[in-house]
Amino acid sequence: MTTPTNPDARHVLVINAGSSSIKYQLLDVTSGVTQAKGLIERIGEGHGGHAAHTVNGVTHEIDHSAMNHREAFEILRAAFAEHGPDLAQVQLEGVGHRIVHGGTFFDGPALITGGVAEQIRGLIPLAPLHNPHNLTGIRVMQQLFPDLPHVAVFDTAFHTTIPAPAHTYAVPEYWRTEHAVRRYGAHGTSHAYVARRTAELVGRPLDELRIIVLHLGNGASACAVQGGRSVETSMGMTPAEGLVMGTRAGDMDPTLAAHLFRSAGLGVEAYDREVNHASGLLGLCGTNDFREVTERRAAGDADATLAFDVTAHRLRKYVGAYTAVMEGVDVIAFTAGIGEHSPELREAVLARLGHLGVEFDADANESLRGEGPITTSGSKVAAWVVPTNEELEIARQTLAVVDAG
Hints:
By secondary structure, the chain is α/β, with parallel strands linked by helices. It has two domains: 11-154, Nucleotidyltransferase, domain 5 (2-Layer Sandwich), CATH 3.30.420; 203-390, ATPase, nucleotide binding domain (Nucleotidyltransferase, domain 5, 2-Layer Sandwich). The chain is 38% helix and 20% strand. The protein has helices spanning 69-83, 114-122, 131-144, 164-167, 173-178, 188-202, 256-264, 268-277, 280-285, 290-298, 302-325, 336-341, 343-350, 362-367, 390-403; strands at residues 11-17, 22-28, 33-41, 49-55, 58-64, 92-99, 110-111, 150-154, 210-216, 220-226, 229-233, 331-335, 372-373, 382-385. Strand 9 and strand 10 form a beta hairpin. The longest helix is centred in the last third of the chain and has 24 residues, at 302-325. The chain is globular, with a radius of gyration of 22 Å. It starts with 10 loop residues before the first strand and ends with a helix. The mean pLDDT is 93.
């Protein structure tokens, strides 16, 4: 099937390859429109695999038995050929690959050469759950589309502008020099997109604004963006630091590992697993679904109420801290699944920030669906809900590298 597309469109295929899944989008960067998107899940299970390919608002369900990423990418190519737009008929400018960790090597997107791939491989110790699968996606897609430029876009790149006092941990020197221990951050493509979009919405140049972006999903992070540059962020060397998340603890005493080893016999692997996969909302109230947390809180559930309150408290603390770091704040932007869809959490954060100049608009917050302001027109500090679009940001950065040759 061939789906008609704008002949002047500039298309980029965005790939996000995980351990057992692949997310993808075909975008027209000129218009910002997603032409098609999909998800291939349960790769390598041998049976029961599932994929979904959406085009023109219609989702096509696909069962598969892909045993590896190459077979999964063949399913991707077949889905485009059958359901459209046919990639053979689309003028593709390039392929953008989401890469979780770029360390200090990459402060922006990079054309993927053999040397770049080796640098990404060398950073696997900093992102052992992500970078190997990102590399697999690169290798297979380069085989399937050998004539296209492939570009790496890094989650960490936006945060390379964070100054040394903010990214340096007060730990022994050999930790920092021999083992690359420092703050790297994450969600950089989201923070970059939302900061730029927020400036457009408030009608002021990005380089004049002090913005706090709150990316709140199952993974959550805060970012202080001053003059368009990241100057602080809540995630640290790994995504486990900072805010309360779905299954991650966020900030806590670093000596807990030793304490739990001595008192409970909890080994390193078990500790790491529980901090990342059994903590956060799940550890506090038994679910990592914030919608369920909110519903149970409304019904008077004590554990859910505590989970909600801990989450809101941590957010207010970070907003206050980042206001101090930037010597003020002009806009607070809520984004990602929870940030965009939980008026209850937004109210819990903003309604207690009046001392900073926030005049919260409860009616606007409750009725808002999508993008819009949730403070009064006279508020000294504006607050907006700004839906993120990480795939479009990756596509834009990919096209910028292609255009630069």
